[in-house]
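Lay summary. Proteins are chains of building blocks that fold into shapes, and those shapes determine what they do. In this project we predict the shape from the chain. Here is one chain we studied, written as its sequence of building blocks.
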Amino acid sequence: MKILLLQLKRIGDLILSTPAVAALRATFPEAQLTLVVSNECADLLPAISNVDRVLIARRNLRDLSLFFSVAARRFDYCIDFTRNDRSAFLAFLSGARRRVVSYRVREQSKTRARAYTDFVSIRMRDMHTIDYNVALLEPLGAGDASTAPHLDLPQMAYEKADALRRDWKVTKPYVVLHPGSARQEKLWDPGRWAEVIDHFGRDNGINLILTSGPSPGEQAHIAAIKNKTHQQIIDLCGKTDLLTLAALIGQARLLVTVDSAPMHLAAATRTPQVILFGPTNPFHWRPRGSPAAILQGDSVAPVTEFSSVRPRFAMSQISTEAVIGAMDSLLSLHAAAQIS
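And here is the predicted shape, written in a compact code that computers can read:
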């Protein structure tokens, strides 16, 4: 049996697809699973297990070879996690006798809907993203799955993370702070990040590590934070590739970040985290499988009840006190667990 999986979205979406991939592997251990991902996710592929072959969609002329590869394979099944024009075209090219997608495609585009044979009665807005991905497997009878994402990080990633810690003299348990995001509306005030750094920078029992992505917007945000900070922090911004960052987060005492890819890296490596949510709804994206304090709006306490319908909040509503309190709570839980 040959199964084609189409996940052409972002890094977080790919990570949240891993429970569905694992469910397929458990149900069809002899199947040949081919995964198509976007070029943005290519660096993560060495950590994606349970697939036999990976193809990359690059959105340029090099995709001609992708189209030919998919068309030549003649798949039995195709699962489209993406639901856009490009994924619909790939589903059609697959020639699979069953091509599965959410029923919403029929409402969005009659032309696109012709690429599929099976329409599952689920909407992403009603479910956590992991549950949505697993539910798409229903026509194949492979819906029984763990709801925690998983990454199989290569040893090289841990070795690079170890080398960074040696080079930068990270000798204590450490907390990773990753303030950046590609979306400006997800950024928290630089002055408040600096207050958090200054507060925990006085704790001689931990090291603070600052990380970020390479985009100019993120780098400008990091520069503004560092300009307001009075305490020492280990600055690894721009010094990690994606897998090394995952390994660094995986061995951290705690991650503090906004709703972005590192949140999903932490969930997949079971690292406790404090996550600042603003315009996006944690109902759909919150971590599974790792302790997490989710902050949104002006409440000092973490969010504990989630709803598929939730207003958009400004990041500025999250207070410094809420972040420090959540960090203290998770660090104390870890310390108590070590004693017991």
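What the prediction tells us: The chain has 14 helices and twelve strands.
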